[in-house]
Design brief:
Layout lengths: L10 E8 L2 E10 L4 E3 L2 E4 L5 E3 L5 E7 L5 E7 L6 E6 L6 E2 L11 E2 L5 E7 L27 E2 L3 E2 L5 E7 L4 E3 L8 E7 L2 E7 L10 E7 L6 E4 L5 E7 L2 E6 L13 E6 L7 E2 L16 E2 L4 E7 L2 E7 L7 E4 L4 E7 L4 E7 L2 E7 L4 E4 L7 E8 L5 E8 L6 E7 L13 H8 L3 E5 L9 H5 L8 H14 L4 E11 L1 H12 L6 E5 L5 H7 L3 H9 L3 H6 L13 E6 L7 H13 L4 E6 L6 H4 L2 H19 L2
Parallel strand pairs: 34-35, 34-36, 36-37, 37-38, 38-39
Antiparallel strand pairs: 1-2, 2-3, 2-4, 4-5, 6-7, 7-8, 8-9, 10-11, 11-14, 12-13, 14-15, 16-17, 17-18, 18-19, 20-21, 21-22, 22-23, 24-25, 25-26, 26-27, 28-29, 29-30, 30-31, 32-33, 33-35
Helix pairs in contact: 5-6
C-alpha cells in the first residue's frame, strides 16, 4: 500500500438490517477533492451489492420499526450533517432537519412516528449564526474545567440538547441546554431515556447517570445514578440495559466497560452482568442491542473484537464472531445478525452472520501479519504483531506504539503498518501493559508507573521480532502517537542506543503543562501519574530531553486539544537548543485524530513524510 492508495480504500461503517434489507454506509478518501465520499449500499443475501443512496456522505442509517422508512445522516459538501428519511422501496430522500451545527444520529420511536437525536445549539452570534466572522464575537467567560474538547472545540456556548423531529420535519427541543445530553433511547413511544453528567453537571464530574424525560418535553427525572461512567442505554422487556464502569473521584482511567441491567420500575438496584476483570465492551463498535436470546455487544479480547451474545441475566457470552478479526459495527432485527468485520488484509467486509456470506469492498494488496508472543524480564507475557514486507530480508524494523494507553493494536486492518511494510519495513505492533483487551489489571498496571513495565513489555516484544532471521537488529526506528508519542520520546531518552531515529507524534512530553492545556488534563494526569509534581516530572519525557541524541521528528496537529501543540514545541526547542538533529512537522487545521480521520491530503502528506524520514535514517 502506497500513500496515494488511501483513495483505493473503501471502508464500510455503520450497518442496519430489517428482514432481507441490509444497508451499509461506506467511506472512501478523495484526494482530489480532499474529502470523504460514500453513500449507503444495499447488501443482498448472496453478497452482491448495489448503491442505495447517492449522497456525498451518508451514514448512521436506522430502519424504522415498522420497516417502511430509513432515517440517516447526510453531509453534502462542507455542510453539517442533517437527518434525512427515504422509503425502503426507493425514492428521493427527504430532509427533516436544517440545524446550524448539524444533527446527531437518529433514533426511531417504537411507533415509527418520530426520531430522537442530539444536536448542539449555538449561542446567538456564534458559529455562523451571523455573517460576521469569529473576530466579532463576544469573549467567552470560562468558569469550569470541562470547557472544551478535542475535535469539537469550546462547549459552554453550544451545549448539546435532546431533540425530537416528526416525519413532517417539525423539530422540538426536549432539553434546554443547561446540561449536556447524549445517547438517547426510547423507553416507549412517549418517553425518552438519555445520558447526562451526574447531578445534571452541576459541577465538573467524570460520573454520568441515566435520566428520563417526556418526548414532548417536561420534567427530567433521575432513573439510574451511575457508579462510574454510564452510556448507551436501551430497553428490552421490562428492563433497562446500559454500559458502565465503576470508580470514585477521578479514578476513571483503564476501567473495563461492562453490561448493566436495572428494572424500569426501579424495584431493584443496577446489576453488572459481565465480569469486571475479563470483559471489556468496545463502545466504538456500536450500540448493544437485544435479540430473542440475549444482548449483542462487542468485547475486546487480546486484539480481537468479538461479537458476543450475553444472557439477559448475565453470565459468559456466546461468541458469534471471533477469531483473528475485529468487529467494527453490527446490527440485528431480532433474528438476522449482520456485522462489519475488519481483518489484517481488509479494512472491512459485511458479514451475514447466519449464512456466513461476506461482502468485500475495494481494497489494496496487504502484507503478511504474524502474531508474536514472548515474555518480559519479569516473566509477564507479551503479545503483539509483526507486519512483514515482501522478500526474505533482513528488513529494517519500525517499532510502532499505539496511543491510549488504554487502547490496543488489533487484528483489524491497520493502514499505517501496511504503508510502512509496503515500503520495505517490518513493523512491530506491541500491546504492552496499559493496553485494553487483556483484563482490567493489565490496563491499570501502568498507573503511577509510566516508563516501567510498559517499556519492558515493548522492548521484550521488539526482541522477539528481532530474533527472527528476516529482521535487521542494526536498523531499528521507533514511532508512535499520543501515548505512543510519549513512549517514543521516553524510549529515545532511556534506550536510544537501540534505535537509529525516532518519530514522536501528538505526544505527551510534560505532564505539568499537559494538566493545564489538554482538554482532559485536569484529571488525566493526576489519575495516571498521581498528584505529586515530582512524580509527574519523573514520568515526563521532557525531563530527560538531555539524554536524547538520535535524529528526532516532532510531529503534531495545530488544533490538537488532547495533546496540545505546546507539548511538541517544548520538546523541539529542548532538542534543537542542544544541537540534536530534530525537525518539527505541524499540520494546520487538524486535531488529535489526524491519522485516522484527518483531511485525506494531510494523511497522504504525513505518510510521505514518514517514509522520507525512515528512508533517510534506516536506508531502505
Amino acid at each position: 500500500m502506497r500513500p496515494e492508495d488511501l483513495q483505493l480504500l473503501t471502508t464500510p461503517g455503520t450497518v442496519a438490517v430489517s428482514g432481507d434489507l441490509v444497508l451499509v454506509s461506506i467511506a472512501t478518501p478523495d484526494l482530489d477533492k480532499n474529502t470523504y465520499r460514500g453513500g449507503l449500499h444495499r447488501v443482498f443475501p448472496d453478497g452482491t451489492t448495489s448503491p442505495w443512496t447517492h449522497g456525498d456522505r451518508d451514514n448512521a442509517q436506522r430502519i424504522s420499526p415498522d420497516g417502511r422508512l430509513v432515517a440517516f445522516l447526510r453531509v453534502a459538501g462542507k455542510s453539517k450533517p442533517q437527518i434525512y428519511v427515504a422509503p425502503v422501496d426507493g425514492g428521493e430522500p427527504r430532509r427533516l432537519t436544517d440545524l446550524p451545527l448539524g444533527a446527531g444520529a437518529p433514533v426511531w420511536s417504537p411507533d415509527s412516528s418520530r426520531l430522537a437525536f442530539v444536536a448542539r445549539v449555538p449561542e446567538d452570534g456564534r458559529y455562523g449564526t451571523t455573517d460576521d466572522g469569529p473576530e466579532a464575537e463576544a469573549p467567552r467567560r470560562i468558569t469550569r474545567l470541562d470547557y472544551r474538547v478535542d475535535d469539537v472545540g469550546f462547549l459552554a456556548d453550544r451545549r448539546p440538547r435532546l431533540h425530537v423531529v416528526d416525519l413532517d420535519g417539525v423539530v422540538a427541543e426536549v432539553t434546554d441546554g443547561s446540561f449536556d445530553v447524549s445517547d438517547p433511547a426510547w423507553i416507549d413511544s412517549e418517553t425518552l431515556v438519555f445520558v447526562a453528567p451526574r447531578d445534571l453537571g452541576a459541577v465538573e464530574t467524570l460520573h454520568s447517570s441515566l435520566y428520563t424525560v417526556p418526548a414532548a418535553g417536561g420534567e427530567v427525572s433521575l432513573l439510574v445514578r451511575g457508579s462510574g461512567e454510564a452510556s448507551m442505554p436501551f430497553v428490552a422487556g421490562s428492563s433497562l440495559y446500559y454500559l458502565g464502569t465503576e470508580f470514585t473521584g477521578i479514578d476513571a482511567v483503564a476501567r473495563n466497560h461492562g453490561l448493566w441491567k436495572v428494572p424500569l420500575d426501579g424495584s431493584a438496584e443496577p446489576v453488572r452482568l459481565t465480569d469486571v476483570e475479563t470483559v471489556d465492551v468496545e463502545r466504538l463498535s456500536g450500540q448493544p442491542v437485544a435479540d430473542a436470546a440475549g444482548v449483542l455487544l462487542v468485547v475486546r479480547n487480546r486484539g480481537a473484537l468479538e461479537l458476543q451474545r450475553i444472557p439477559f441475566d448475565g453470565g459468559p457470552g456466546e461468541v458469534l464472531v471471533g477469531g483473528s478479526q475485529a468487529v467494527k459495527f453490527f446490527a440485528t432485527d431480532g433474528s438476522s445478525v449482520v456485522a462489519v468485520v475488519s481483518t489484517p488484509d481488509s479494512p472491512g467486509q459485511v458479514l451475514l452472520v447466519d449464512s456466513g456470506v461476506r461482502t468485500a469492498f475495494s481494497s489494496v494488496d496487504a502484507r503478511r501479519v504474524v502474531e508474536l508472543n514472548g515474555s518480559a524480564s519479569d516473566g509477564y507475557p507479551v503479545h503483539g504483531w509483526l507486519v512483514l514486507p515482501d522478500g526474505d530480508g533482513p528488513h529494517p524494523v519500525v517499532l510502532a506504539v499505539h496511543g491510549g494507553p488504554f487502547m490496543y493494536h488489533s487484528w483489524g486492518f491497520f493502514d499505517e503498518a501496511q504503508v510502512y511494510a509496503s515500503a520495505g519495513y517490518a513493523v512491530v505492533l506491541p500491546n504492552p501493559r496499559g493496553s485494553a483487551g487483556y483484563g482490567q489489571s493489565h490496563g491499570q498496571a501502568v498507573i503511577g508507573k509510566f516508563g516501567t513495565v510498559d517499556v519492558d513489555d515493548v522492548l521484550s516484544l521488539l526482541d522477539v521480532a528481532l530474533a527472527r532471521e528476516d529482521t535487521d537488529s542494526e536498523r531499528v526506528g521507533v514511532m508512535g502517537g499520543s501515548y505512543g508519542g510519549f513512549m517514543t520520546s521516553w524510549l529515545s531518552a532511556h534506550h536510544g542506543e537501540r534505535f537509529k531515529a525516532a518519530w514522536s507524534e501528538r505526544a505527551v512530553n510534560a505532564w505539568d503543562s499537559f494538566s493545564g492545556s489538554s482538554d482532559i488534563g485536569y484529571f488525566f494526569a493526576d489519575a495516571y501519574c498521581g498528584t505529586d509534581p515530582e512524580a509527574q516530572r519523573a514520568m515526563s519525557p521532557l525531563t530527560y530531553a538531555e539524554k536524547i541524541n538520535l535524529p528526532f521528528a516532532v510531529v503534531h496537529s495545530e488544533q490538537d486539544w488532547r495533546c496540545p501543540l505546546e507539548q511538541a514545541q517544548r520538546m523541539f526547542v529542548a532538542l534543537k537548543r542542544r544541537g540534536v538533529e530534530a525537525e518539527m512537522l505541524i499540520f494546520p487545521g487538524e486535531g488529535h485524530e489526524l491519522t485516522r480521520s484527518g483531511q485525506p491530503r494531510h494523511r497522504k502528506q504525513r505518510f510521505d513524510a514518514v517514509l522520507e524520514w525512515w528512508a533517510r535514517y534506516l536506508n531502505c
